[in-house]
Amino acid sequence: MARGAPLLELRGISKSFGGVTALSGVDFTLEVGEIHGLVGENGAGKSTLMKIIAGVHTSFEGEMRIAGRPARHRSARSARDAGIGMVHQELSVVPELSVAENVMLGVQPVNRLGLVDWPGMMRRARALLAELGIDVDPRVPIGRLPLGMQQLVEIARVLSSGARIVILDEPTSALSPPEVEVLFGLLRRVRDSGRSIVFISHFLEDVLAICDRVTCFRNGRLIETAPVSAIDKGWIITRMIGAGHEELEQGYAGEIRLDSRPGAPVVLACEAASGPGFREVSLEARAGEVLGIYGSMGAGQLDLARALFGRTALSGGRLSLDGRPIALRNTAAARRAGIAFVPESRRSMLFAQEPVYRNVSISILDRISRLWVKPAVERAIAQRHVEALGIRPPSVHPRLGTLSGGNQQKVALAKWLTHLPRVLVLSEPTRGMDVGAKEEVVRIVRALREQGIAVLVVSTEPETVLSLADRILVMKRGQVCEEFAGGTVSKDRLLAAA
Amino acid sequence: MSTSDSAVLPRSGGMGWLKGQLRNIAPFATLLVLVALFSIASPSFATLDNVANIARQVSVTAIIAVGLTFVILCAEIDLSVASVANAVGIMVAFFTLQDQSVNIANIPLPGAAAILLALLGSLALGAVTAFGVTVIGIPSFIMTLAMLQIGAGICAMLVRGQIAYSVPAPIEMLGSGSIGPVPWIVVVAVLVLALGHIVLSYTRFGRYVYMVGGNREAAEYSGVNVKLVLAAVLVISAVCSGIAGMLGVAHFGSAQQNEFDNYLLDAISAVVVGGTSLFGGQGGIGNTVVGLLVLGVLNNGLDHVQIDSFLKILIRGLILLLALVINVYAQRLRAKA
Ligand SMILES: Nc1ncnc2c1ncn2[C@@H]1O[C@H](COP(=O)(O)OP(=O)(O)OP(=O)(O)O)[C@@H](O)[C@H]1O
Ligand SMILES: [Mg+2]
Question: What's the ipTM?
């Protein structure tokens, strides 16, 4: 390597998709042995820049140098051969394959006959996962694991591939606080071994905690890069969205006042409900109240949310809506009963190949049309939401798959906002959203609450629950273990309870 | 081909748009090339008479392919279509008075009753498939394989190796009669295609079919009754096959075992060659029409150019392979675009 040359250097990178400019004139450098944070609003172009580096997008303007030498990848494969590994924002594990096969994807050990060496693969995968501190059976199909665990396994795959440039696009969005700690330990070790990491995140605390330098993006432009020691959250927010948003800075470190409404009528009640992943859960969601359900990964709150939408069947207990018992045979029944659900994974919620407006209208199709579809009506409705939620690009026509991750998440929420449900169950509602968009979600949820909807916010992020909930249940090993109603609560007390 | 979108697609920009449209463009280009080739190679190919021939030759396949398009759009498969067509065709003959010479223990009924019973028969076969796939959870590939066998069994039981010739008068007319120069069966095929297109492109049910095919889990999480949609497409497929079977029997002039054996491959080829995605959610009746014409022109054209009839079989196989390659490749390009 030419001495002093940065490991990776990008000059004048521009990229547009049809009419949409995603990046314009970006100069970016990555030094040897640094963790480089990338922040910016949803749609700022972070993922696009990383996909250029990782050879996913091969047509762009500008030049790229690796260790001083000009480089131009022809494919993701040639980028991988050049030592670049990327964990994408959307998980790309193969759900049917085992954990071990996913970890070893593309580098399976073979025996002398040229066949996959299964025992060897299991052994190596087990050793690798243990070394990384990930406690999981390498034989189970990865699709059966909780999302956070899948994410850790995918990160493990890239870290173990020996890449010298590791790109992590929102790696912590599905992780619980202890898992984040595991990951950070791992990343520091990787850095100390002289490899470099790009770390994209909307969790500014995480960025400040782990990165050496931070780069801010806005509207496809690189605004500024600074060493982490010289900056704070306010500095980042000002550069991300512009000045005047200082209130976004306040974290949830202090005591949060809870505003539960014990007198309000119960909308959805759950009596000793059991199902896959949870046992004997009793809860009452009240009109005009946001009920937060917090638990660490695998505590069962996400499973509970799915069951409340009829996705999985209850094996015991009872549900009632407005005092009348209901049985949710399937999700269609739940929707008709007035229950809405936004799952934690975008991929399982959205139709990537369909235009935005069809993604918005799918859940209200039976209200706006009996026999014939009415695309004009659908577009008009979708347009309202696109404007109200600030979805970018501000059009209902693009295929959903072309939107940035955070904007996709907004579409997932939009589809339940046309005909308001009685109960809205949000699983990880702010995952992948920038600070501004999170604030927006808080505003939307408050507005829904004022209209008398019972909102359930289910999350593994204490901040999400604290910022939204009026009352908080904490779950642990499939059961409700504590309730915070009235008075105040803090992040520490929440973490301690879980 | 979801027509309502074509007006807005170009905004995603030049090359990307072309790549996204590969599945629509490639089959159409194939059709044009084939037509050009055969027109040059044989003077008797590009005549009005021959166009009518081609239309008549693909009609039965077309009716089956409409139902199959629904199924494939949902990312499922129905291997029982030809067998169900055969069984329903035999049913309608079974309930019709046959000539003295036909040695079948049949149950002669008035024409309307025979048609009704045969239609109910196709509905019942479809319902069984739907039950197996959606309630029991048998993969459609396996379930319809069983139904293929069951259909063959019904045929065998009803005719016991014999051949029946008579079908009710309305069926006779639709299958082998014509209005003016146009055979009725072509009219029926066009109507069924048009109906299929309208349902898929302009109705709520059609939208659900595309959404379930596009991402089944997301459809589920949007509160769509996915099982109901899957059951419906399987029943639609069986009914289309039933109609094709009845008209086919009249068209061929006889009802017997194994009469439709070629139609399974033909119908699947038509749908896939036309560019409807095997992964679901992309394509439609427009594609199926192009696929039908490609197959029809190919089969008919090869007859016009004096080619070894064994080679014909191979050529058809190669065209199908090419279509599959394009189909899978188009899926990838679109996913990337
Ligand atoms: N394949 C594509 N086709 C068309 N437009 C695209 C495509 N990929 C990205 N874009 C557009 O480029 C812009 C930048 O998107 P990008 O995914 O890089 O944002 P991001 O900074 O990663 O945002 P987020 O935090 O939401 O993930 C967005 O406006 C997006 O809609
Ligand atoms: Mg992104």
Answer: 0.85
